Amino acid sequence: MVPVRARGLTIEGADGRRYLDCLSGAGTLALGHNHPVVLEAIRRVLDSGAPLSVLDLATPVKDAFITELFRTLPPGLADRARVQFCGPAGTDAVEAALKLVRVATGRTGILAFTGAYHGMTAGALAASGGARDVQVARLPYPQDYRCPFGAGGPRGAELAARWTESLLDDPKSGVPLPAGMILEPVQGEGGVLPGPDDWLRRMRRLTADRSIPLIADEIQTGVGRTGAFWAVDHSGITPDVMVLSKAIGGSLPLAVIVYRDELDVWPPGAHAGTFRGNQLAMAAGTATLAFVRENGLAERAADLGSRMLHRLGELADTFACVGEVRGRGLMLGVELVDPAGAVSEPLDQHPAATDPEPPHAPQPAAPELAVAVQRECLRRGLIVELGGRHSAVVRLLPPLTISEEQAAAVLDRLSDAVAAVARGHEEHGPQHGPPHSPQPGAQHGRHHGPGRRAG
């Protein structure tokens, strides 16, 4: 695909084909491609003759952006916050946040979570799930389908919290008091894993009790994506630092950290970046933040996302190769598994009496099936992303402006793609894809084979 034009959810390729874009620039395009309010905001700056790059200088455009940003922040943070403009990418903001808490506390270690993704620069990578760094202690991130404790649900989240608490309080754990904890309220690249609200509140309490700054990475989850303006709003926690990028620039490069004033002890110039004064991005970001807030798009994402998730659940009920569907708001994931693979037995065979049911035993992840589904989606004119521990999760990040009709079309095309892959997997075995590749828009009947909905 070679994109040449785009509007809203739709991208047109050089060959004249149209695609529904459920990647949205990895979540950058909260309002979709070329939204009129964003284009108008950019034109106003261009037509005004204002400088386009201003480093740290105060300007009316920057003041408008900060004012709108502060309207949306959790009240406990907005009342006592400072803002640091970083380089243009989210990973630059993560670097700034790590540097900030290390300077403020005088400590060096960082607590991060398995499956995390915080960026591609050295410090951000060190805090991400795939790296190894002696200064970063890895903590379990709760999840239901592949719970590291074999429990899932509230029991799994409780065990994850106990592990973290024990690590911090055990003088022989090998983990000294850290400079900060960084977490994603919903892990995106990690496989669309929403952090349970009670667990997030527990992380907030244990960090606050031990004077450990809590850093919330809202780069992908922010600006209404999860059904609240910021994903931390679901649990009601107030982090010490929020890392923001992607959608806050209204499709243009912009990254900031917002943090409590007590942490503001680093000297001027301690963190800088040539492109931290991007006026066009600030104007586009102001327009995006205001449009999402004024039009209740976060609340709409919660409602529409819940209905889309319910329909995605039909895939897990119908196809054995769908292990679990999950998500929050318009941040959705479908995990592909090998139904013929060996099942990992849950560790906890005797759940507590308060647990509603025993945990499901997960099937092995099937990244080759996820790649096949992604390919079949593209052939049907649907763009999706892959993620998860084994790249076996098909991810949906549609713009918040997606219509009901467009949402139905997205789900129809995804369902058709899964049906084609499941049929090919059953007929030809795990080494083969679908028997043929239909043209975009071709319809397929549902396969009513053995399947279940997990989670």
TrEMBL record:
InterPro entries assigned: Aminotrans_3, Aminotrans_3_PPA_site, Dat, PyrdxlP-dep_Trfase, PyrdxlP-dep_Trfase_major, PyrdxlP-dep_Trfase_small
Cofactor: pyridoxal 5'-phosphate
Comp. bias regions, Basic residues: 444-455
Entry EC no(s): 2.6.1.76
Gene3D superfamilies: Aspartate Aminotransferase, domain 1 (3.90.1150.10), Type I PLP-dependent aspartate aminotransferase-like (Major domain) (3.40.640.10)
Matching Pfam families: Aminotran_3
Keywords for the protein's UniProt record, in alphabetical order: Aminotransferase, Pyridoxal phosphate, Transferase
Family of this protein: Belongs to the class-III pyridoxal-phosphate-dependent aminotransferase family.
NCBIfam families noted in UniProt: dat
Name the UniProt record assigns to this protein: Diaminobutyrate--2-oxoglutarate transaminase
Organism, as annotated: Streptomyces incarnatus
